[in-house]
Amino acid sequence: MMKKFASHRLYIPHLDLFLRNQVVEIDDNTGIVVSYYPFKEETGFTEWLNGLIVLSYNTVLISLKSEGFPSGEFNVMYIDKDKNIRSVLPPHGGDTLLNAYYITSFNVSEMCFSSDSRAVKLI
Q1: What is the DSSP letter of 45?
Q2: Could you give the CA distance from residue 48 to residue 50 in angstroms, rounded to a whole number?
Q3: Sequence-distant (≥ 6) Cβ neighbours of residue 53 within 8 angstroms
Q4: What is the largest CA-CA distance in the chain?
């Protein structure tokens, strides 16, 4: 079985790709991303998530600052001065399996995180 999630925005840090209105399919058993594609019409059993989904090989962290990031195995996301999403990726890559994270309390119209924003792994 697959779980399907749709959102206003999809960000893929390792490709520096930011897409609008996308559907992400996740394998129910493994929690791994199987595919993503443009949202064109309502389909059954698709959960709509308001805001942002991130596809990442690494655990996602959110920073409200654009400097002073923790080092380690994380994909640290921040908003630059031009209101673009940016990421600092670990130097040696990460897992070989792509995971999906829903970013809570992300303001799509203002393109910003809040102090309440969290990255929640979708399964």
Answers
A1: T
A2: 6
A3: 5, 7, 9, 10, 11, 22, 24, 100, 101, 102, 103, 122
A4: 43
Among candidates 95, 93, 75, which has minimal Cα distance to 85? 75
Return left, alpha or beta for 79; rule: phi > 0 is left, psi -120 to 50 is alpha, else beta. beta
For the chain, 123 residues long, give each residue's pLDDT as a single digit of tens: 899 999 999 999 999 999 999 999 999 999 999 999 999 998 889 999 999 999 999 999 999 987 777 667 888 999 999 999 999 888 766 667 899 999 999 999 999 999 999 999 998
Cβ atoms within 10 Å of 119's Cβ, excluding its own? 20
d(CA 2, CA 46): 10
Model-level pTM?
A: 0.91
For the chain, helix, strand, coil in percent to 5 are 0, 50, 45
Q: Map tokens 């130097």 to a residue.
A: 91
Helix intervals (H) in 1-123: none
